[in-house]
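Subject: sequence -> structure tokens, single chain

Hey, anyone have a minute? Need the predicted structure for the following. Not urgent.
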Amino acid sequence: MSVPGTFNSEIGCGSDWSTNCPQAQLTARTDGSGAWSKTLDLPAGNYAYKAAINNSWAENYGAKAQSYGADIPLQIPAGGRTVTFVYDPVTHWITDDVNSKIVTAAGSFQSEIGCSADWSPTCLRSWLQDIDGDGIYTWSTDAIPAGTHQVKAAIGQSWNESYGLGGTASGADIGFTVPANGSTTTFRYSTATHALTVETEGGEPEPALDGTLGALYTPEKTTFRIWSPDNSQVSVTVGGQTHTLQPATVSGYTGVYQAVVTGDLKNQPYQFRVGSNAVRDPYARMVKPGTTEGIVMDTESIEPTGGWAPVPALVKREDAVIYEMNVRNFTIDPSSGVDPAKRGKFAGLTQTGTTYNGVKTGIDHLKELGVTHVQLLPSFDFNSTVPNWGYDPLNYNVPEEQFSQFTAPEDRVREFQNMVNEFHKNGIRVLMDVVYNHTASKDVFQNISAKYYHQTELSGTGNSIDDSNPMVSRMIQDSLEYWVDTYNIDGFRFDLIGVHQYKNVDQWAKRLQAAFPDRTLQIHGEPWSGGVDDPQQAQKVRYGTAPAIAGGHVGVFNGTYRDAIKGGTRDQILGYMGGSSSNASSIALGMRGSPLATKSTTPLTDPWAPAFAYDPEQTINYVSAHDDLSLWDKIIYSGVTGGPAGRAGQMDRFAAGMVLTSQGIPFFHEGDEFLHSKVVNGDYEAAKNSYESGDNVNAIQWGEKSANTATFRYYKDAIALRKNTPALRLATWDAVKNQINTTISGSIVTSAISANAAAPTSYDTVVVYNPTNNPSNVTLPTGSWKKVLDTNGATDSTSATADALAVTVFKKS
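Reply:
Had a minute. Here:
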């Protein structure tokens, strides 16, 4: 068996079209496929060839496996390349991996059809062929035994290129069921979509309800599904009866077991067991508190009181101003003015008409402040008792019962929906802080499968989740989609998003954005792990991989800019806000939205590159969050004196002003706007990490607002200015590059900005950061200008002076 052709002389044959040249002889494969193959190194050129049988032209095959068929053209690019030829003596298809793909159905069944091992991309017993050249590769067999199997399409006899569920590169395994021994199974792979489909005799299985797992309710029956990759002994107990789960083929999932239980089971508790262990349902929509039991829910029929209100409009993500808050902290103190039964509850967050000492509190305060988004600290079911921030998840899809006024499952769902809906009615979107990087302990999922968890601890808690497992990744994707679909959530903040594979995060985000295209969902997270070295850091979310996830509109917290502004999060070292001149260039970069030096979505070689943003929306700018010292406590801890009316207060406004006038998305923590302090009796150590401190430390004391109205007015004015100044909210890398001119003079950083892409140097806004103790005269571009923000807030002045230790903004009039 040989491949005579016009390249024969190039590989050492005496002449071209030589049927008996040793160098052109194919070798019989040892994988039991019956196929023949040969790999040759060919120089650049345009060639042609055929397959000759028994070293003679008496039997030969050309294009499309035709006897005495047309010559097969072969074009080798400049520099040459390695070419693999493959011939099937049954179909007589002769091909090469330049003209076509070598596609293998690699899966869990291969050893049962004669391959040496399962999941073998090199075994051509499961070789798909495209004889007619239409881009659809097929293979049919009746050798796969009855049962449930998994498969992927492997390209080029390697895992370097493979496609799983939905045609996703390196995607989830594709499950299929062969109904009986001898049944014909047909595999089809499309080069256009990369999708591999599997058809078997006996018809398709019953369609998946919602295409997901968990307890899937209808009035006539409930379908119970759980992933159990290691143990086939799976059952569910509901209504006093135990039902054995059987292997099931569910599109998009592998290793799934299912039982269909007839009757109306709404609001009934259920308990999965894997082996002898009672286990949680990772997809539970409601749970019986303090147990591993789920509750069968008909969440599709639940809506907020009066129906869903329109979601507040958001033209682009750079228009956002994000306010981080804790459900309990915001209203638990009596000074919140919230009804006693609602304090510290979901309902308390949206009670209107509350005041303290003549100032607005609660949601009315947020509206007065002007924020566009609230970001709720963990509000799903967690293990600890409040007061605690809830970073110890138990059930990812269940609202935390300690924040609810109700015990009835449907009432608890509706209460959370009502909270989101009321925020929307008041013009505020809602983000959730999600903690998919770890669970409260390994006991949460360990008895289902150890495959949920990393072998290397990455979260700092001893139980980090391993989303490199396709089913774990799918669980996270499904949970995100569930919160948007059922509760109308507007986006997510990922705790330690740096634990996750950046390609998975990109997939989750793109899936959400495509599923809810009209929502302008906000997604961001911390691009680091839990203070540990990660051997797979290059595959995780970091500043350096942020460009690669720009397509899903994913941003990251800009800790580099944060530290440049304020210094450390728990130390007494002050950064630029303290008058430092050594990091003015870092401030200039952050002021511009930390843009990439070169526009590209290719990951950077430096995972901590400070210039990382493909789009301004990718940088979340902040100087204070729930972790560490609040901004005010940091300033006082660092020895700054003068109080709210003196240098300390001025420094606080300077730092906040930088966040609110930089390109990107501004973010701050509850109470920052009125100098909230977590220090009680001088205890700064407790304030540095107050996640489990009591209400005396963390609760918002609304008297702070009435005592610090000048600071509140500054934040309010700066937010209003941002909203009314398009130049502060540029939306592309190109706009930042072309429409901002940034200069550094000593330690003073100045940006002249144009909001008009058609006139990029016709600047309409000038922003000056002056960390010095002295005012500075500003040379403004030609035209009539007004000073609109100074150290005290909104102003209307013709002065061209930039205040000391302040952000000053000028606008063209």
